[in-house]
Amino acid sequence: MLSFSALMVANAIDMVFIAHLGHEPLTAASLASPFMWLMNTIAMGIALAISVHVSKGQERAEGNTVIDVLLPGLLIGAAVYGVVLLGAGLNLEAVLGAMGAAPSIYEQSEGYLKTWLYGFIITLTFAISTAYLRGLSLFKTQAIVVAVVCLMNIVLDPLLMFGVGGFAGFGLVGSVYAAWLAQAGGALVCIYFGVRRTRATGPRNLGMGKMLQAALNISRLAWVTSSTATFWPISGIVATYLISKLGDAEVATMGVISKLQPLIMIPVWGVSAVTTVLLSKAYVQQRHDQVGMIFKSGYGLVLMWQTAVALPFIVFAGPVARFMLGGYEEALPFVVTYLMIIPITVFGRGMLYLAVHGLPAIERARTAMAIDGVYVLLLHTGCYWVGYLFNDFNLALLMLLALNLLGAVLAVWVAKHARCSLSMPKAPHRPMETI
């Protein structure tokens, strides 16, 4: 959980620095945030697939090799990056301009987003390399590396954004350059420790067929995990478009929420990553009776830790909102309302997140996609649509509160259904359900 905490704290502090650049850079970054979120979730989906693949390989007699784990992952990453570069060549200015912001704002947003997309290969490699260590159960090493990377990011951010001495700084894109430098160093360190722990193959055993098979296995799971993960940012893009019609203050609030929500949900990311690995190991070892217990333990930890994390945000809602907004008073009431009602109920969404990301590890990927699709694309987007329809952002926040509580109910049903389905006789093999 330390690594996820460090990442979310660094993201939140990054938004604080951006807010101090002024109102326009904050709104510009807020417009770009859901698109960056989309790409980051794809990276996280690929990383999750690699973690599961590596951990399952460790449980099997033959173990893993550098060739059948790391290289296929990096090949998949390179393929995804090629698609990203094609996306960067699109008319992003027109896409961002459709959000209704002033030309000076969406032009800044376009430059910020394009710069970030060009360096996405660094973010992707960092995600893959940290997942490599998690799959090898090197949790402590991975956490330390991520924490150091985040600290470097926090130190480099103001230097590259605001400058120092005779150096004027890069402004908004300086935030991207800081992330590049920190993540590139972290990726190299993770790969070094992972290769040391993984059995290497000799020149005679480089088998292209084996490497392609490993890449296929990872891709199959990554397709599911990434597809499911992208539901949230796709919903976020639509939500940002709807809320942008209400005003700049609401757009800025969406940007702050995009940084605060992951910070608030730190326990969810940490517990989910570990729970997924435990579920995959239990499934490979055919300890199906432990699946329900693992889900319940994960839910209990999410509920306990989520409540503990939420309380400070509720008690200090006003100061936190002012700190995040950098003096932008118009958005203050919206952020305060968000902090008062969402953190204490977001455990429900976190429980469902854990459930749908744990299901692919026990070969229930289709179920995960169906549940997440309805919950996110239909219900979550619907909350913002209601706020847009009634021209009331606070109403959208109240709808999100109810949606969070519904998530807890669905999560309990998922765990019960998964346990029952594993105890039943096996159905005929379905290729799309396998990893």
Automatic annotation (TrEMBL):
Origin: domain of life: Bacteria
Keywords: Membrane, Transmembrane, Transmembrane helix, Transport
A Pfam family the protein falls into: MatE
Transmembrane segments: 34-54, 66-90, 116-133, 145-170, 176-195, 221-243, 263-280, 301-325, 331-356, 368-387, 393-415
Gene Ontology terms for molecular function: antiporter activity; xenobiotic transmembrane transporter activity
The keyword Transmembrane is annotated on this UniProt entry: yes
PANTHER family noted in UniProt: FMN_FAD EXPORTER YEEO-RELATED, MULTIDRUG RESISTANCE PROTEIN NORM-RELATED
Name of the protein: Multidrug efflux protein
Source organism of the structure: Pseudomonas fluorescens
